[in-house]
Amino acid sequence: MPQPYMVHSRAEDAELYRRFAPALLAYLLRNVASREDAEDLLVDIFLAALEKRLSAGIDEQKFSAWIWIVAHNKVVDYHRRHKHRKSKELYSVQNILYESTEQEPEQMALKNEEYQQLHLTLRELSKVQRDIVQLRFGHDLTCGQIAAVIHKSEGAVRMTLHRTLKLLRTLYSRNEEGGKL
């Protein structure tokens, strides 16, 4: 038997957008070829989210995991449809990250060097390791939520995260000793 429709106010919908849109857009910008494509996918995600909220009373934690699963699936679908298109590397959208006019040029240069080192170090990780680190620290998801997004067990996510952080420490130490920092 279908569940009764739950009515949500525009204020609740706006709050949902304010809570999730910035992080989702950042995730999409890293994973699709253009800002326009990322914005289109963001609209698709929120349309699905509004439909989900209308049809089911879902608790906050499950909804958070669910919306990230939808975002991940939208990115996968996007890449399936656009196999022939070249994707943008992170450095090609780097200026978007540094648009703050409050920073002095010296601070921006130092921050740029730090991000370049981080980007180089993250490139040494596998895609699964990078995704887990981005979802955990970039989007503050729990290991259980990450497991749902990437279709792995929570134990596997915890172990991969632990090993990845250990590897990152080793890589940073190696780079520091090698004079790369």
From TrEMBL:
<feature type="domain" description="RNA polymerase sigma-70 region 2">
    <location>
        <begin position="16"/>
        <end position="83"/>
    </location>
</feature>
<dbReference type="Pfam" id="PF04542">
    <property type="entry name" value="Sigma70_r2"/>
</dbReference>
<dbReference type="InterPro" id="IPR036388">
    <property type="entry name" value="WH-like_DNA-bd_sf"/>
</dbReference>
<dbReference type="InterPro" id="IPR007630">
    <property type="entry name" value="RNA_pol_sigma70_r4"/>
</dbReference>
<keyword id="KW-0805">Transcription regulation</keyword>
<dbReference type="GO" id="GO:0003677">
    <property type="term" value="F:DNA binding"/>
</dbReference>
<dbReference type="InterPro" id="IPR007627">
    <property type="entry name" value="RNA_pol_sigma70_r2"/>
</dbReference>
<feature type="domain" description="RNA polymerase sigma-70 region 4">
    <location>
        <begin position="122"/>
        <end position="169"/>
    </location>
</feature>
<dbReference type="GO" id="GO:0016987">
    <property type="term" value="F:sigma factor activity"/>
</dbReference>
<comment type="similarity">
    <text>Belongs to the sigma-70 factor family. ECF subfamily.</text>
</comment>
<keyword id="KW-0804">Transcription</keyword>
<keyword id="KW-0238">DNA-binding</keyword>
<dbReference type="GO" id="GO:0006352">
    <property type="term" value="P:DNA-templated transcription initiation"/>
</dbReference>
<dbReference type="InterPro" id="IPR013325">
    <property type="entry name" value="RNA_pol_sigma_r2"/>
</dbReference>
<dbReference type="Pfam" id="PF04545">
    <property type="entry name" value="Sigma70_r4"/>
</dbReference>
<dbReference type="InterPro" id="IPR039425">
    <property type="entry name" value="RNA_pol_sigma-70-like"/>
</dbReference>
<dbReference type="InterPro" id="IPR014284">
    <property type="entry name" value="RNA_pol_sigma-70_dom"/>
</dbReference>
<protein>
    <submittedName>
        <fullName>RNA polymerase sigma factor</fullName>
    </submittedName>
</protein>
<keyword id="KW-0731">Sigma factor</keyword>
<dbReference type="InterPro" id="IPR013324">
    <property type="entry name" value="RNA_pol_sigma_r3/r4-like"/>
</dbReference>
